[in-house]
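Table S2 (continued). Query chain:
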Amino acid sequence: MLRVTKTFEDDSAVTLRLDGKLISTTLSDVEGLCLHYADKENKLVALDFSGVAFIDESGAKLVRRIKSDRVAILNCSLFVKTFIDELPEETSDR
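Corresponding output:
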């Protein structure tokens, strides 16, 4: 289970705190919120990972995919940061 709480919002930015597990079954919620705020509302999005207790490979891939100049990751634990950083790059066979 993952709980997402908006902890800050103004005209140009929003901070979303994630609490729980960022796994395959919770990814669509996070990705949908990021797309909504970054694309539809044209805001900078900060994802506060201080409450993330676990992340699986699907979650790490999502973080890599959505992290950009419009979406930032904050307060990432050493476990989560290491897991994301050490995940092999995806290759395309096309």
